[in-house]
Design brief:
There is one protein chain. The protein is mainly alpha-helical and 328 residues long. A hairpin with a 2-residue loop joins strand 1 and strand 2.
């Protein structure tokens, strides 16, 4: 009896050690991938520029205006200062369409509002919409790709046919129809972007999982009785995570462009200033040619942000595809 108890204790300890060893190995692989990207980024000047520009926009977006948190009747601010000197809708000048000056570095709008403050505040809205929409789309696309490739059969047929249908839907007409039916709001704009953006990630992740599920480590996991969920998300997903991260970076850029396009068409969230909304207001006021200071800053911000994300994605692509490390 004591011998059986000792054997069971030894087996349990061995299984625990194996589990810890596997977890340590997975973390070592992730850290190795992170160090690999850091090494590539160290030699990639464009990637460094992209991170610097993105960090600047993140700083501006976070500190654009005070963030107020309310608890019942009490409230407090969780940031010490504000970069925007005025509210986006506040009339701060008696003269409309005033050119840039010391008081208003980017001039004023047709309603006497400070363009500089609008661009600063619009950074936060654009980042929120772009980031949330992109990561929701990548989350959906990655799960569709993993599930369809792993299970195959009718599950794959249904999910991939849905993906094919979404590929046939043009973004702008779909978004216009959706926002017209449901109304212009932040949630609906994000939904319009997400419902179209996930399709590319789904197809690419599916192709990668199809190759990984035939590899020995998946067969070993099945042999020891691992569940399908564990095989998909603990064994396979870490191996396709660099690819998912790459598509997440590109999705952020695409989502920002999509949000700016919808806002430029007047379908942006009402009462919220974004870079696309600023250009829309200038077009509605007929000041696209007359007041360059009203249009130019928002357009440059969109260009710089998208450019920075693509520079970062370019360095991430070298992690996913090592052959690109030897090309200029």
């Amino acid at each position: 009896m004591s011998h059986d108890t000792t054997t069971e204790g030894t087996d349990t300890a061995s299984e625990g050690a194996d589990t810890i060893s596997r977890r340590r190995l997975r973390w070592e692989r992730r850290l190795a991938a992170l160090r690999n990207w850091a090494g590539i980024l160290k030699a990639d000047r464009l990637g460094q520029i992209g991170i610097a520009i993105l960090a600047f926009f993140l700083f501006v977006g976070i500190f654009a205006r005070p963030i107020t948190v309310e608890f019942g009747s009490a409230w407090f601010q969780i940031q010490p200062f504000s970069l925007a000197p005025h509210e986006s809708s506040a009339r701060v000048a008696d003269e409309s369409l005033a050119p840039p000056s010391r008081e208003h570095p980017l001039g004023t709008t047709s309603l006497g509002r400070d363009v500089y403050s609008q661009v600063i505040i619009g950074t936060r809205v654009t980042l929120i919409v772009g980031t949330i929409a992109a990561f929701m789309a990548v989350f959906i696309g990655a799960n569709v790709g993993i599930i369809s490739a792993y299970y195959g059969g009718w599950t794959e047929d249904i999910l991939m046919r849905i993906t094919d249908v979404v590929y046939g839907v043009p973004f702008l007409p779909f978004a216009i129809a959706l926002v017209f039916i449901l109304g212009a709001s932040l949630v609906n704009v994000i939904a319009a972007i997400v419902l179209i953006l996930w399709r590319g990630t789904a197809r690419v992740v599916r192709s990668q999982v199809l190759s990984h599920k035939q590899r020995p480590y998946v067969e070993s996991a099945r042999a020891i009785g691992a569940s399908d969920f564990r095989i998909m998300y603990v064994q396979i997903m870490p191996n396709v995570l660099p690819l998912i991260t790459l598509y997440a970076a590109f999705a952020v850029a695409w989502a920002v462009i999509a949000e700016a396009s919808l806002s430029f068409l007047g379908l942006g969230p009402p009462g919220m200033i974004s870079w696309g909304e600023i250009i829309y207001d200038a077009r509605s006021a007929g000041a696209l040619r007359e007041a360059w200071w009203w249009v130019f800053p928002a357009g440059v911000c969109i260009m710089l942000f998208v450019m920075s994300v693509f520079f970062i994605g370019r360095s991430l692509e070298k992690v996913v595809n090592p052959d690109l490390r030897h090309t200029q």
